[in-house]
Amino acid sequence: ETGVTQTPRHLVMGMTNKKSLKCEQHLGHNAMYWYKQSAKKPLELMFVYNFKEQTENNSVPSRFSPECPNSSHLFLHLHTLQPEDSALYLCASSQPHSALQQGGATNEKLFFGSGTQLSVL
Amino acid sequence: SQQGEEDPQALSIQEGENATMNCSYKTSINNLQWYRQNSGRGLVHLILIRSNEREKHSGRLRVTLDTSKKSSSLLITASRAADTASYFCATDGRDSNYQLIWGAGTKLIIKP
Questions:
Q1: Would you state the pLDDT for residue A6?
Q2: Which helix (H) or strand (E) holds B86?
Q3: CB contact, 8 Å: A17 with chain B?
Q4: Least CA distance to B48: which residue of chain A?
Q5: Inter-chain residue contact A104 with B99, CB threshold 8 Å
Q6: Any chain A CB within 8 A of the CB of B30?
Q7: Are the C-beta atoms of residues A20 and A74 closer than 8 Å to each other?
Q8: Given CB atoms, is B38 within the 8 Å cutoff of chain A?
């Protein structure tokens, strides 16, 4: 186990549903990430939280709404998704590098959860 | 854009053989990392190599970095069926504000 737990592992939802993905890390890290992984495409960074503050939002549509109540928990709230949003959603955590203090992202290794395989019908 | 590109896209070899995967990138980097992903699972970090390093080893893994060619290679020696997975490189640097930029991965299949 990597110390990063994601639930649920699988999720099927209709376009009008509202659901949430949960991520919890037990590593004492202060940076957490949401990534989207679609087939045969590079990982797409969605959001970065550093010490509970959102430091990156890579032009993600507003139908994805992140929440980071503390350094150990990260949520991704989903509403009115589209079929093209079907993908594997991965959460990761890391110990922030000093670059994060200036709003940048870490260059230390990431610890990933097993992901939530999302299907939007 | 600074994007890692793995080569080949897919590789199938016999158990016991060595597997070599390559990664190329476009701009100067701070670090380059290799990750492995089993089907439908999260990524697992393998090795991080810094821009001032040329080679690193970890068990059966050997990573080289050639900053003049903007490329890296991952060598897995004496492959095992359990090495079957997708392998990704990720780079970071000032140009990306130290965000990790990922390649699309190499799918490695080890035939028993």
A1: 97
A2: strand B85-92
A3: no
A4: A109
A5: yes
A6: yes
A7: no
A8: no
pLDDT digits (tens, 9 = 90+) for A31-55: 999 999 998 788 999 999 988 788 8
How many Cβ pairs within 8 Å bridge chains A and B? Answer: 65
> Could you give the strand order of the β-sheet that contains A64-70, starting from the edge strand earlier in sequence?
A4-7, A18-25, A73-79, A64-70
Range in A50-54, A60-64, A72-76, B88-92 the model is least confident about: A50-54
Nearest CA in chain A to B33: A109
DSSP class of residue A99?
A: G
Residue B100: Cβ within 10 Å count: 27
For residue B57, give both structure tokens. 């080893």
How far apart, in whole angstroms, are the C-alpha atoms of residue A92 and residue A87?
Answer: 16
Backbone angles phi, psi at B59, to 5 degrees: 60, -120
Question: Do the beta carbons of residue B111 and residue B62 sit within 8 Å?
Answer: no
Q: Which residue of A has its CA nearest to B103?
A: A42
Residue A57 carries which side chain, given as an amino acid letter?
N
Entry field: residues in chain B:
112
Worst-scoring range by mean pLDDT, A31-45, A89-103, A107-121, B46-60? A89-103
Question: Shortest Cα distance from B99 to chain A (angstroms)?
Answer: 5
Gap from A13 CA to chain B (nearest CA, Å): 19
Structure-token match 């509403």, residue found: A79
